[in-house]
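Ticket #4471: structure export looks truncated?
Reporter: QA, pipeline team
Priority: medium

Steps to reproduce: submit the single chain below to the structure queue and open the exported record.
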Amino acid sequence: MSLFAVGAWIAKELPHWVSLLWILSTIVGFMGYFIPCLNLLFALSGVIFGIGFAGAGVKIWSSTSK
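Actual output as written to the record:
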């Protein structure tokens, strides 16, 4: 997903905050997965990803209705 986020950032097809959330969720997810005492971060990365995915959906949906 991070590769897609970087591509979307470069192409400027989605808001930058969506790509930033996807990249942040990847970083937070790795930290939560590999550092045992930070396992809550793994769940938080899913929430961050979901917010970014919902933001991308709203952007795509609003652009098709014009």
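Status: closed, not a bug. The export was complete when the record was re-opened. Leaving a note from the reviewer for reference: Helices lie at 2-11, 16-34, 40-64.
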